Amino acid sequence: MLNVARGGASSRDLSTQVVGTKITDSDVVVLSVGTNDAAPWQQVPVDEFAENLSRFCSSHVPRNWIYLACPGVDERCLNPVGDRTNAIIAP
Fold it and tell me: Could you cite one Gene Ontology molecular function of this protein (predicted)?
């Protein structure tokens, strides 16, 4: 098992996170991205997010993909101004 996750990463970082690894047709890849893309300090547009995921997934051919969707934001823990909200990550 190899974990290349990095806190604060967005879909823009997918390709650089796997540099030096070899994803083969016998691997299972777990992909979990989304909430950081919606962070006000990143604000990756939805079209770009979709393109980043599409480009990454089409450039690798593992045995299987597992996508973990972000669970949403616990809005009780938000900073008062300029934080992620469920409305931002919903599209």
Answer: hydrolase activity
- Angle ∠(38,51,88) on CA atoms, nearest 5: 20
Cα gap 34→57, rounded to integer Å: 15
Q: Tokens at residue 14, please?
A: 């997918």
Tokens of 65: 């993909």
pLDDT in tens, the chain (91 residues): 888 888 888 999 998 988 888 888 999 999 888 778 877 788 888 899 899 999 999 999 899 999 887 777 677 776 666 666 667 666 6
User: Would residue 2 count as lying in a domain?
Assistant: no
Residue 88: what pLDDT? 67
Q: Is residue 3 domain-resident?
A: no
Q: Is residue 38 part of a domain?
A: yes
CA dihedral 75, 77, 73, 66 (to 10 degrees): -160
* Residue 5 within any structural domain of the chain: no
